[in-house]
Write a structure and sequence with these properties.
Blueprint lengths: L5 E6 L3 H14 L4 E6 L2 H10 L4 E5 L1 E2 L2 E2 L1 H10 L5 E5 L4 H10 L3 E4 L5 H34 L2 E6 L5 E4 L2 H6 L17 H15 L5 E9 L5 E11 L7 E8 L1 H23 L3 E6 L4 E4 L1 H7 L3 H4 L4 H4 L4 H14 L4 E9 L5 E11 L6 E8 L1 H45 L6 H28 L7 E3 L1 H18 L2 E6 L7 E3 L1 H23 L2 E10 L2 E8 L6 H4 L19 H11 L3 E6 L5 E8 L3 H22 L2 H14 L3 H13 L4 E7 L2 E6 L4 E7 H7 L5 E6 L5 E7 L2 E8 L2
Parallel strand pairs: 1-2, 1-3, 3-6, 6-7, 19-21, 25-28
Antiparallel strand pairs: 4-5, 8-9, 8-12, 10-11, 11-12, 13-14, 13-17, 15-16, 16-17, 18-20, 21-22, 22-24, 23-24, 25-26, 26-27, 28-29, 29-30
Helix pairs in contact: 1-5, 13-14, 15-16, 16-18
Length: 738
């Protein structure tokens, strides 16, 4: 069969009508149509089942089928073949019904010519093709809407729902037709309502515009779901004439995002709670994160830190910079550290840190975690210990030297003075003797300073005002300072409390610092300004002396408290003044240090603990009671040693725990601390729990501050001597069988 011909199949039982139709098709053009024929419906259906038919001509009056029933049978058997009905009856109602049921056209026999028949067949084929395409498109659209993750709705300009896709049932639990004709705003969360209404109004003002928003909608089961909605204003599109809304359920995604955010917040909290600085950077050294301690050490906020390279953040010496570069290269491959660095913060402050690094990730996604421990205080304490050791060694030497020199110096001074008084000496010799006497006196002052430095005088503490000590000290120097053009500015804290300290020793410290500042300013500039400031810093009184002198080099700053170190000319200083000050302040439980840069003056800071008279009495009483208990407990050293094995064996027994509980209840204590051997302690709570076992006594006592407790030491007769302590003050001594 030619592919260029239209394949027509005719089901007609009347041979004359069949011949007429063949003639009409031939007249229309043999090259156009190729006609097949069957004289009954059953034969025609068999042929239709074989396919290869473009259009069917169907008579409704057949031997084996009549009327529209024939059409129904054909449509059921060959739904994809277009049908033109031909009938001898000119019945408009039958024609309309035939078209409604699926026929493409209805022709009346005897009223058809060749052109009409050919046109009807071509139109039938084309209409059927368009209908099939439309049906396919509808099925495709239906499949998309039914299986889409997004729900689709069409709204009018008031927000009333005109259409909702099948996905609405899966997403919100409603049948597609349930909400048609209702307002789309009914399901919106009250907190989102105002925002969504305003956004919808804005969308209405802009045809063809698009709006994106997150909105919470109520599911049919009453729960709230979060959606990502996109609205398109197509009211001016004749094919739509509405607002097309697509919305996707993102509830799980939002929950996952919230869980991730909470996890990140928790992790950030953990990192920020760390006492150590934690930094994360990439392999190029660009910071990705810094916790709160890191930000504090470096003086940069998180926003200032992230994205910056470590070489631009830290001001390092050439040696430290080179060390840092090597460390970065090594850190990308393996764990390193700890390594010591001195960091200079944004404000110029110096911090010593101990850094360990850990690489995380793989290949090109490696990041480096650096954990830096602030060891500034440790370094300071190490320096104090080093200096203290040096002071002890020098002190022992100084005592021996001073005593050995004092006797001959006394003899030299005495005989020089005696000879000077003689009238028989000439002026030149007398002048030489005066020089001998003067230099011997200077040597005596040096040995006096040595003895003063070496002696371990305990401070005689009284309740004093530090401000008053400073005022009295300045009065001693006021005249000389005026002569030397030194301006003094005093800034005393208004609420500075008094403290227990040795007035004379503190005055000695202040005189030394003021004298040094005055000499430095006069030598450098011939004038100057001294600012003396006091303030409370926690539980310490801080006194700062700031001068406008030449400053101190970093090298000298680390040595100024060393004995015999001085920058003054020979004969103008012994190098012991600040060493003596250091010892005095340390004996008061405080600290002294200096801050300076060359050319910018110097600041000496003295910090003294605030101790009330009551605290001092309590400390003395506690020491006295504990000394008494230790004396009783120790008795004969051999006796205590003999008892120790038995005490240690029973200290964790049920009986000891029970007796400790009884003592705590009777005396209304939070805990009972037992010290069976000097320096080691066990602690029972009021409930009888062993909360500390074989720990340092000082540590256990420190943790118990602020609560009433008993500290007990054993005696040789099997009893324990106990001091009852409340708010740091011993209030009672008792004896207990523990």
């Amino acid at each position: 069969m030619d592919s260029g011909k239209t394949r027509v199949f005719l089901i007609e039982d009347n041979p004359g009508d069949a011949r007429l139709i063949r003639d009409l098709l031939t007249e229309a053009g043999n090259s156009v149509f190729d006609l097949g024929h069957a004289d009954c419906l059953s034969t025609g259906l068999k042929r239709l089942a074989e396919g290869d038919i473009d259009v069917l001509l169907l008579d409704l009056s057949l031997p084996d089928s009549q009327g529209l029933d024939s059409l129904s049978k054909v449509l059921a058997k060959a739904p994809k073949v277009p049908i033109v009905v031909m009938s001898g009856l000119e019945d408009e109602s039958v024609a309309i019904k035939a078209v409604q049921e699926g026929a493409q056209d209805y022709l009346v026999k005897g009223s058809v010519d060749a052109k009409l028949l050919a046109r009807s067949l071509r139109y039938a084929i084309e209409r059927h093709r368009l209908q099939q395409a439309l049906r396919h498109s509808e099925e495709y659209f239906r499949a998309l809407t039914e299986n889409s993750q997004d729900a689709i709705a069409i709204l009018d300009s008031n927000g009333t729902i005109r259409y909702e896709g099948p996905s609405i049932e899966r997403i919100l639990g409603y049948e597609p037709q349930d909400r048609v004709g209702k307002s789309a705003f009914e399901l919106i969360h009250p907190e989102d309502m105002s925002r969504v209404v305003n956004s919808f109004a804005e969308l209405m003002r802009k045809p063809r515009s698009t709006l994106r928003a997150e909105v919470r909608l109520q599911h049919k089961d009453g729960s709230w779901r979060t959606f990502e909605a996109v609205g398109n204003n197509l009211l001016d599109d004749p094919a739509v004439r509405g607002v097309v809304a697509n919305f996707r359920d993102i509830t799980e995604r939002k929950q996952a995002e919230e869980a991730l955010r909470e996890s990140e917040e928790k992790l950030k909290h953990y990192l920020d709670s760390s006492p150590e600085a934690i930094l994360i950077c990439d392999t190029r050294g660009n910071f990705l994160y810094g916790n709160r301690v890191a930000q504090k050490i470096m003086g940069y906020s998180s926003e200032e830190l992230v994205g910056k390279n470590w070489q631009k953040i830290f001001a390092l010496s050439e040696e430290s910079l080179s060390k840092g570069v090597r460390l970065m290269e090594l850190s990308a491959r393996k764990r390193t550290g700890p390594n010591e660095f001195e960091l200079v913060g944004k404000d110029g402050s110096h911090t010593f840190v101990e850094v360990s690094t850990y690489p995380i990730g793989q290949r090109d996604k490696v990041e480096i975690i650096s954990i830096a421990r602030d060891i500034t205080e440790r370094k300071r304490l190490e320096e104090q210990l080093r200096l203290a050791g040096r002071l002890v060694a020098v002190g022992e030497l100084a005592v021996g030297v001073a005593h050995e020199l004092n006797n001959p110096l006394a003899a030299i001074q005495g005989f020089a003075q005696l000879l000077t008084a003689s009238d028989h000496l000439d002026k030149t010799l007398k002048k030489d003797l005066e020089t001998i006497y003067r230099e011997a006196q200077r040597a005596s002052k040096i040995t006096g300073s040595l003895l003063s430095f070496a002696r371990q005088h305990k401070p005689e503490k009284h309740l004093i005002s530090i401000d008053e000590v400073i005022e009295k000290t300045l009065e001693l120097r006021v005249h000389q300072m005026q002569v030397n053009n030194i301006e003094v500015v005093v800034d005393f804290a208004a609420d500075l409390p008094k403290t227990m300290a040795d007035f004379s020793q503190m005055q000695q410290v202040f005189v030394n610092i003021i004298n040094n500042a005055e000499q430095a300013m006069v030598e450098a500039h011939g004038r100057g300004k001294l600012i003396v400031k006091t303030e409370r810093s926690g539980e310490m009184i801080q006194i700062a002396f700031t001068d406008s002198g030449p400053g101190i080099s970093e090298e000298n700053l680390n040595r100024i408290f060393d004995p015999f170190f001085t920058t003054k000319e020979v004969g103008k200083g012994t190098g012991l003044g600040l060493s003596i000050c250091y010892g005095i302040v340390q004996a008061h439980g405080g600290r002294i240090y200096a801050k300076s840069k060359l050319g910018r003056g110097a600041t000496f800071v003295v910090e003294i603990p605030i101790i009330s008279e009551g605290q001092a009495v309590a400390e003395r009483a506690t020491k006295s009671m504990l000394d008494e208990h230790n004396t009783k407990a120790n008795g004969i050293p051999e006796a205590r040693q003999a008892n120790e094995d038995g005490i240690l064996a029973s200290i964790e027994s049920v009986e000891t725990r029970s007796n400790a509980m009884r003592l705590a209840v009777m005396e209304n204590l939070s805990s009972v601390i037992l010290e069976p051997t000097p320096g080691r302690a066990w602690q029972y709570s009021r409930a009888g729990h062993l909360v500390a076992q074989n720990q340092e006594t000082s540590v256990v006592v420190a943790k118990s501050k602020g609560t009433p407790y008993a500290i007990c030491v054993p005696s040789k007769d099997g009893f324990w001597y106990c001091s009852i302590v409340d708010n740091g003050m011993p209030i009672k001594a008792t004896e207990a069988r523990l």
